[in-house]
């Protein structure tokens, strides 16, 4: 059994290194989280200053005062204008609009108009689809309730 677990360790590490955690905004926090995910349970408990039996109520209260509440981070929702700008900022759109400007300056107004309309339609459709999917994802996140079960040990284990 132990050999089977050791054989899985490299694939587990690969999965952890290529998880969304590795794309965390704060590289130091990403490294800390990846190291914690790959650590052996006993080692991680020791690093965190706890035991498999949990913390006492006093220890938990002290950590709450020093570290703060353990809250799940939420993504800030973008405004529709920011979403639209995000969809428009695309190298292909810039290239096509440059081509439209060149066509216009060479006197081919019809080609310039067609290219511009194609870019506007593309950006508009992408914006509408992304806005709808962001709203659907927000509704799904609102339905999810995050709960945790904690262990509290008695101060005197008698």
Which terms summarize this structure?
7 helices, 67% helix, elongated, 158 residues, mainly alpha
Can you summarize this structure?
The protein has 158 residues and is an all-alpha fold.
What does this structure look like?
It is elongated and about 90 Å long. It has 7 helices and no strands. The chain has 158 residues and is mostly helical. The model is unreliable at 1-9 (pLDDT under 50). Among the domains are: 2-38, no CATH class; 80-143.
Find the count of extended strands (DSSP E, 2+ residues). Answer: 0
Main β-sheet, in a few words?
none
User: What gross morphology would you assign?
Assistant: elongated
- Proportion of strand residues: under 5%
- Using the CA coordinates, give the radius of gyration: 26 Å
Structural class: mainly alpha
| Overall pLDDT score | 80
End-to-end distance, in Å?
A: 35 Å
Model regions low in confidence, pLDDT < 50 over at least 5 residues: 1-9
Portion of residues in helices?
55-70%
């Amino acid at each position: 059994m132990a050999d089977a677990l050791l054989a899985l360790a490299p694939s587990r590490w690969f999965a952890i290194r290529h998880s969304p955690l590795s794309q965390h905004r704060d590289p130091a926090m990403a490294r800390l989280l990846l190291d914690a995910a790959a650590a052996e349970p006993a080692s991680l408990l020791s690093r965190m200053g706890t035991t498999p039996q949990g913390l006492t109520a006093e220890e938990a209260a002290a950590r709450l005062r020093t570290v703060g509440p353990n809250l799940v981070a939420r993504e800030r929702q973008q405004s529709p204008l920011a979403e639209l700008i995000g969809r428009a900022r695309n190298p292909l759109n810039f290239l096509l609009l440059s081509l439209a400007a060149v066509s216009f300056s060479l006197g081919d107004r019809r080609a310039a108009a067609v290219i511009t309309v194609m870019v506007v339609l593309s950006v508009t459709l992408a914006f509408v689809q992304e806005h709808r999917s962001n709203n659907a994802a927000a509704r799904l996140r609102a339905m999810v309730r995050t709960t945790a079960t904690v262990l509290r040990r008695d101060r005197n284990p008698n």
